[in-house]
Design brief:
Layout: E1 3-14, E2 17-28, E3 32-36, H1 43-51, E4 57-63, E5 66-67, H2 73-78, E6 81-84, H3 96-103, H4 111-124, H5 126-130, H6 141-153, E7 159-163, H7 171-186, E8 190-195, H8 198-204, E9 207-212, E10 215-221, H9 222-227, H10 229-235
Parallel strand pairs: 3-8, 3-9, 6-7, 7-8
Antiparallel strand pairs: 1-2, 1-4, 4-5, 9-10
Helix pairs in contact: 3-6
Bound molecules: adenosine-5'-triphosphate and magnesium ion.
């Protein structure tokens, strides 16, 4: 098994205050790995730093063995990394279709390929097809999350970073989103999933990391973490 993503000593500071301290983590090719932790632990900062949208001091970020830590975010996308950011980050004053078209820019797809990708997304998310010409900001939270996921998938990621896809969604919508995430994962995409819903994350992930106050405090097999007394007490409400 090859290593899809390998982060070594990632640190993030805001105005001199350290939010993430020397975090190292890895995902094997085809793995679904989750990162859990309480509010303010540094999960979003870590994801942003991996994507290159949050400045960090990082020893190394390797994507399938290639160093990408010096690349700009769009170049990382071209190398096969995509992020569905926390809060979705869609363009609310643009239509669904425009969001998908813009989403494909970093991948430098040809117009024919973009059209095929849009059709593929409309098959995966029929709801988005129905709403192709609707302004994204007028859609429900669940529909916006579908769009955020579809937009990231337009770039054919080999490694998909998901930051709190379940946030603010109804249980049915969480089901819909996670069914697609599992489908994407089964198609061979490596997934790094940040979730506030630790039970859900540990249920679908192969392995997990627990983050607390900017550092990784525990990691291992997802089932083992779900059975760990410390995880149960702190994150599973038991
Ligand atoms: N742009 C910023 N400027 C200043 N401080 C920030 C900024 N973004 C995050 N922080 C701080 O960094 C720390 C980690 O935040 P981060 O958003 O990475 O945590 P998180 O684990 O994603 O939390 P949550 O579960 O609430 O999403 C927090 O103390 C936060 O206040
Ligand atoms: Mg966050």
């Amino acid at each position: 098994m090859s290593t899809a993503l390998e982060i070594t000593d990632l640190s993030v500071s805001y105005d001199g205050v350290r939010a993430v301290r020397r975090v190292s983590l890895a995902a094997q090719s085809g793995e679904m790995v989750c990162l859990i932790g309480s509010n303010g632990a540094g999960k979003t900062s870590t994801m942003g730093a991996i994507m290159g949208v949050v400045p960090s001091t990082t020893l190394s970020i390797k994507l399938f063995g290639e160093e990408i830590g010096h690349l700009k975010p769009h170049q990382r996308v071209q190398q096969g990394l995509s992020l569905v950011p926390e809060g979705r980050g869609i363009l609310t004053r643009m239509t669904v279709l425009e969001n998908l078209q813009i989403g494909s820019y970093p991948a430098r797809s040809t117009p024919v390929q973009v059209q095929a990708d849009i059709e593929r997304m409309f098959t995966t998310f029929p709801r988005l097809k129905e709403r192709a010409h609707q302004l994204a900001g007028t859609m429900s939270g669940g529909e916006q999350q579908m769009l955020a996921l579809a937009r990231a998938l337009m770039c054919h990621p080999r490694v998909l970073l998901l930051d709190e896809p379940s946030m603010g969604l109804s249980p049915i919508m969480v089901d819909t989103i996670f069914r697609v995430v599992e489908q994407v994962h089964k198609s061979g995409v490596t997934v790094l999933l940040v979730e506030q819903n630790a039970a859900l994350a540990l249920d679908i992930a192969d392995r997990g990391y627990v983050m607390s106050s900017g550092t990784i405090t525990l990691f291992g097999d997802a089932n083992a973490l779900a059975a760990d007394q410390r995880v149960k007490e702190a994150y599973l409400g038991e």
